[in-house]
Please model this.
Amino acid sequence: QVQLQESGPGLVKPSQTLSLTCAVSGASISRGSYFWSWIRQPAGKGLEWIGRISTSGNTNYNPSLKSRVTLSLDTSKNQISLKLSSVTAADTAIYHCARDTSFPMLRGVISSFDFWGQGTMVTVSS
Amino acid sequence: DIQMTQSPSSLSAAVGDRVTITCRASQSIDNYLNWYQQKSRKAPKLLIYGASTLLSGVPSRFSGSGSGTDFTLTISSLQPEDFATYYCQQSYTAPLYTFGQGTKVEI
Model:
Protein backbone atom coordinates (compact mmCIF):
# COMPACT_ATOMS: atom_id res chain seq x y z
CA GLN A 1 0.00 0.00 0.00
CA VAL A 2 1.37 3.37 -1.02
CA GLN A 3 1.50 5.94 1.77
CA LEU A 4 2.45 9.60 1.63
CA GLN A 5 3.27 11.85 4.59
CA GLU A 6 3.83 15.58 4.33
CA SER A 7 5.99 17.51 6.78
CA GLY A 8 7.43 20.97 7.25
CA PRO A 9 7.13 24.19 9.26
CA GLY A 10 3.60 25.08 10.22
CA LEU A 11 4.35 28.81 10.27
CA VAL A 12 6.17 30.84 7.61
CA LYS A 13 6.73 34.60 7.58
CA PRO A 14 5.53 36.70 4.65
CA SER A 15 8.06 37.06 1.81
CA GLN A 16 9.94 33.95 2.95
CA THR A 17 10.12 30.54 1.24
CA LEU A 18 7.82 27.71 2.24
CA SER A 19 9.57 24.33 2.18
CA LEU A 20 7.74 21.03 2.52
CA THR A 21 8.65 17.40 2.02
CA CYS A 22 6.52 14.39 1.17
CA ALA A 23 7.85 11.03 2.36
CA VAL A 24 6.63 8.12 0.24
CA SER A 25 6.49 4.49 1.37
CA GLY A 26 5.30 1.47 -0.57
CA ALA A 27 6.54 2.83 -3.91
CA SER A 28 9.71 4.22 -5.41
CA ILE A 29 9.43 7.86 -6.44
CA SER A 30 11.93 7.25 -9.26
CA ARG A 31 10.32 4.21 -10.86
CA GLY A 32 7.16 3.65 -12.86
CA SER A 33 4.93 5.77 -15.05
CA TYR A 34 3.74 8.09 -12.31
CA PHE A 35 3.89 11.71 -11.36
CA TRP A 36 3.97 13.17 -7.87
CA SER A 37 1.81 16.21 -7.35
CA TRP A 38 1.29 18.89 -4.72
CA ILE A 39 -2.23 20.18 -4.13
CA ARG A 40 -3.32 22.78 -1.61
CA GLN A 41 -6.53 23.60 0.17
CA PRO A 42 -7.09 27.03 1.74
CA ALA A 43 -9.44 26.97 4.71
CA GLY A 44 -13.04 26.80 3.58
CA LYS A 45 -12.08 26.72 -0.08
CA GLY A 46 -11.58 24.15 -2.80
CA LEU A 47 -8.50 22.29 -3.94
CA GLU A 48 -5.81 23.91 -6.10
CA TRP A 49 -3.23 21.90 -8.06
CA ILE A 50 0.26 23.36 -7.58
CA GLY A 51 2.49 21.21 -9.75
CA ARG A 52 3.88 17.76 -10.41
CA ILE A 53 7.17 16.00 -10.97
CA SER A 54 7.74 12.79 -12.91
CA THR A 55 9.79 9.85 -11.75
CA SER A 56 12.56 11.13 -14.03
CA GLY A 57 12.41 14.66 -12.62
CA ASN A 58 10.41 16.46 -15.31
CA THR A 59 8.14 19.13 -13.88
CA ASN A 60 4.85 20.85 -14.71
CA TYR A 61 3.53 23.80 -12.72
CA ASN A 62 0.26 25.65 -12.39
CA PRO A 63 0.80 28.84 -14.44
CA SER A 64 -0.65 30.89 -11.58
CA LEU A 65 2.21 29.75 -9.31
CA LYS A 66 4.93 28.83 -11.79
CA SER A 67 7.24 31.77 -11.05
CA ARG A 68 7.39 30.83 -7.35
CA VAL A 69 7.32 27.01 -7.28
CA THR A 70 10.10 24.44 -7.42
CA LEU A 71 9.59 20.69 -7.09
CA SER A 72 12.40 18.18 -6.71
CA LEU A 73 13.04 14.51 -5.97
CA ASP A 74 15.31 13.16 -3.24
CA THR A 75 15.68 9.56 -4.32
CA SER A 76 18.02 8.68 -1.43
CA LYS A 77 15.20 9.43 1.02
CA ASN A 78 12.30 8.60 -1.33
CA GLN A 79 10.91 12.08 -0.77
CA ILE A 80 9.47 14.84 -2.91
CA SER A 81 10.12 18.46 -2.00
CA LEU A 82 8.10 21.60 -2.58
CA LYS A 83 9.49 25.12 -2.36
CA LEU A 84 7.20 28.14 -2.72
CA SER A 85 8.93 31.50 -2.60
CA SER A 86 7.73 35.00 -1.67
CA VAL A 87 4.76 33.71 0.28
CA THR A 88 1.83 35.86 1.36
CA ALA A 89 -1.23 35.24 3.52
CA ALA A 90 -2.95 33.90 0.39
CA ASP A 91 -0.61 30.89 0.54
CA THR A 92 -2.03 29.81 3.90
CA ALA A 93 -3.50 26.37 3.30
CA ILE A 94 -3.32 22.65 3.92
CA TYR A 95 -0.74 21.22 1.52
CA HIS A 96 -1.21 17.67 0.22
CA CYS A 97 1.04 15.50 -1.88
CA ALA A 98 -0.53 12.89 -4.12
CA ARG A 99 0.39 10.29 -6.71
CA ASP A 100 -0.79 11.08 -10.23
CA THR A 101 -1.60 7.84 -12.07
CA SER A 102 -2.92 7.13 -15.54
CA PHE A 103 -5.97 4.89 -15.75
CA PRO A 104 -7.08 3.34 -19.05
CA MET A 105 -10.50 4.21 -20.40
CA LEU A 106 -12.38 2.88 -23.42
CA ARG A 107 -10.91 5.80 -25.31
CA GLY A 108 -7.64 7.19 -24.02
CA VAL A 109 -6.28 7.41 -20.49
CA ILE A 110 -7.19 9.67 -17.61
CA SER A 111 -4.91 11.11 -14.96
CA SER A 112 -6.20 10.66 -11.43
CA PHE A 113 -4.79 11.08 -7.93
CA ASP A 114 -4.97 7.57 -6.50
CA PHE A 115 -3.00 8.07 -3.25
CA TRP A 116 -2.87 11.19 -1.11
CA GLY A 117 -1.18 12.32 2.04
CA GLN A 118 -3.26 13.62 4.92
CA GLY A 119 -1.85 17.09 4.40
CA THR A 120 0.09 19.59 6.49
CA MET A 121 -1.22 22.98 7.56
CA VAL A 122 0.93 25.99 6.68
CA THR A 123 0.11 29.44 7.98
CA VAL A 124 1.78 32.54 6.55
CA SER A 125 1.94 35.20 9.22
CA SER A 126 4.44 37.51 10.83
CA ASP B 1 -8.68 27.44 -17.14
CA ILE B 2 -11.68 25.14 -17.01
CA GLN B 3 -13.89 26.00 -14.05
CA MET B 4 -15.65 23.20 -12.21
CA THR B 5 -18.85 24.09 -10.34
CA GLN B 6 -20.46 21.69 -7.90
CA SER B 7 -23.97 21.85 -6.52
CA PRO B 8 -25.15 21.93 -3.90
CA SER B 9 -22.28 23.18 -1.74
CA SER B 10 -23.76 21.23 1.15
CA LEU B 11 -26.72 18.97 1.80
CA SER B 12 -28.38 17.26 4.72
CA ALA B 13 -29.46 13.68 4.35
CA ALA B 14 -30.35 10.65 6.42
CA VAL B 15 -28.98 7.14 6.39
CA GLY B 16 -30.65 5.25 3.55
CA ASP B 17 -31.32 8.34 1.44
CA ARG B 18 -30.42 8.55 -2.23
CA VAL B 19 -28.01 11.44 -2.72
CA THR B 20 -27.04 13.13 -5.98
CA ILE B 21 -24.24 15.66 -6.40
CA THR B 22 -23.78 17.62 -9.61
CA CYS B 23 -20.58 18.88 -11.20
CA ARG B 24 -20.57 21.20 -14.22
CA ALA B 25 -17.55 22.10 -16.32
CA SER B 26 -17.18 25.51 -17.98
CA GLN B 27 -16.42 23.74 -21.27
CA SER B 28 -16.60 20.19 -22.55
CA ILE B 29 -14.21 17.79 -20.83
CA ASP B 30 -15.49 14.61 -22.55
CA ASN B 31 -15.35 12.05 -19.71
CA TYR B 32 -12.11 13.24 -18.12
CA LEU B 33 -13.71 13.57 -14.70
CA ASN B 34 -12.74 12.13 -11.32
CA TRP B 35 -14.62 12.06 -8.01
CA TYR B 36 -13.00 12.10 -4.56
CA GLN B 37 -14.26 11.68 -1.02
CA GLN B 38 -12.63 13.51 1.88
CA LYS B 39 -13.48 12.89 5.50
CA SER B 40 -12.54 15.49 8.06
CA ARG B 41 -8.76 15.90 8.35
CA LYS B 42 -8.14 12.79 6.26
CA ALA B 43 -6.48 12.24 2.92
CA PRO B 44 -8.89 12.50 -0.03
CA LYS B 45 -9.81 9.16 -1.55
CA LEU B 46 -10.37 8.49 -5.25
CA LEU B 47 -13.80 6.97 -5.84
CA ILE B 48 -14.51 7.21 -9.54
CA TYR B 49 -12.41 7.94 -12.62
CA GLY B 50 -13.41 8.50 -16.21
CA ALA B 51 -16.76 9.86 -15.00
CA SER B 52 -18.24 6.43 -14.30
CA THR B 53 -15.62 3.78 -13.46
CA LEU B 54 -15.49 2.80 -9.80
CA LEU B 55 -12.06 2.28 -8.36
CA SER B 56 -11.58 -1.27 -7.12
CA GLY B 57 -12.87 -1.61 -3.57
CA VAL B 58 -15.32 1.29 -3.73
CA PRO B 59 -18.82 0.20 -2.67
CA SER B 60 -21.30 -0.27 -5.50
CA ARG B 61 -23.74 2.19 -3.92
CA PHE B 62 -21.54 4.88 -5.48
CA SER B 63 -22.03 5.60 -9.16
CA GLY B 64 -21.04 8.31 -11.58
CA SER B 65 -22.46 9.45 -14.87
CA GLY B 66 -22.20 12.20 -17.43
CA SER B 67 -20.10 13.42 -20.30
CA GLY B 68 -19.25 16.74 -21.85
CA THR B 69 -20.06 19.41 -19.28
CA ASP B 70 -22.52 17.82 -16.86
CA PHE B 71 -21.74 15.06 -14.40
CA THR B 72 -23.35 13.46 -11.37
CA LEU B 73 -22.20 11.41 -8.41
CA THR B 74 -24.96 9.31 -6.86
CA ILE B 75 -24.98 7.44 -3.58
CA SER B 76 -27.91 5.05 -3.83
CA SER B 77 -28.35 4.43 -0.11
CA LEU B 78 -26.36 6.70 2.17
CA GLN B 79 -24.40 4.93 4.90
CA PRO B 80 -22.97 6.47 8.10
CA GLU B 81 -19.43 6.25 6.72
CA ASP B 82 -20.44 8.28 3.62
CA PHE B 83 -20.80 11.56 5.50
CA ALA B 84 -17.93 13.53 4.01
CA THR B 85 -17.05 16.17 1.45
CA TYR B 86 -17.00 15.17 -2.21
CA TYR B 87 -14.94 16.83 -4.94
CA CYS B 88 -14.97 16.53 -8.70
CA GLN B 89 -11.79 17.12 -10.70
CA GLN B 90 -11.15 17.46 -14.43
CA SER B 91 -8.13 15.95 -16.17
CA TYR B 92 -9.06 17.09 -19.70
CA THR B 93 -6.40 19.79 -19.61
CA ALA B 94 -3.85 17.64 -17.77
CA PRO B 95 -1.57 18.51 -16.20
CA LEU B 96 -3.46 21.74 -15.49
CA TYR B 97 -6.02 20.09 -13.24
CA THR B 98 -8.93 21.91 -11.63
CA PHE B 99 -11.30 20.86 -8.88
CA GLY B 100 -14.82 21.71 -7.89
CA GLN B 101 -15.30 23.59 -4.63
CA GLY B 102 -16.72 20.54 -2.86
CA THR B 103 -20.07 19.29 -1.60
CA LYS B 104 -20.39 18.53 2.09
CA VAL B 105 -22.82 15.72 2.91
CA GLU B 106 -24.09 16.09 6.48
CA ILE B 107 -26.58 14.33 8.66
Remarks:
- Residues 37 and 45 of chain B are 5 Å apart (CA to CA).
- The longest strand of chain B covers residues 19-25.
- Chain B has no helices and eleven strands.
